[in-house]
Amino acid sequence: MHADSWRRNYRGAYDDHFLDHDVDADRLAVWTARLGVPGPSGRACTVVAEHDGAVVGFAHTIFGEDPAWGSLLDNLHVSHALQRQGIASRLMACTAERLLAAGGGRALYLWVLEQNTGAQAFYRARGGSVVERAVRPLAGGGDGPVLRIAWPDAATLVLPG
Predict the structure, then answer these.
(1) Domain ranges (residues) in the chain
(2) Which of 41, 116, 128, 135 lies 20 to 30 angstroms, CA to CA, from 147?
(3) Does the pLDDT value for residue 140 go beyond 80?
């Protein structure tokens, strides 16, 4: 799902050869390392959405990643076929709840590629503000323009009820 999302949304920013040939192995290595740590580290959290027994979305957050901006929502992806059904909003709400329960701060931020205007609109609709533009290294090589989107208080992402 992660590799598919990158292929769909990051073509033109990431190297085509990387997206066409190497992204699956790259993402597998990243997730094997992230999820292979025994027991809860307390430093990161991955929330998974399931539908009919299959994983349809996930959000991965690193708590307290930046002293000024707070916790980093490092990944948020939903199966392409199930987008626009509220799954990403629920994943963000669960992430916010976990962040608030961890007690290490309330601020949340993420980086999004500047070309991914659909994701930017989604984050803005959930109260995120673009606070910085930067050029950062991209997986597979090269650099790309990204935007930092931030929420000073993750409680604004928690869904009512």
Answers:
(1) 2-157
(2) 41
(3) yes
What's the CA gap between 123 and 143, in Å, rounded?
A: 23
pLDDT digits (tens, 9 = 90+) for 51-68: 999 999 999 999 999 999
Residue of 84, 106, 104, 113 whose CA lies nearest to 157: 106
* Length, in residues, of the chain: 161
What fold characterizes domain 2-157?
Aminopeptidase (3.40.630)
Of residues 133, 44, 118, the one with CA closest to residue 88:
118
Tens of pLDDT, residue by residue over 101-122, are 988 789 999 999 999 999 999 9
Instruction: Please give the DSSP secondary-structure letter assigned to residue 85.
Output: S
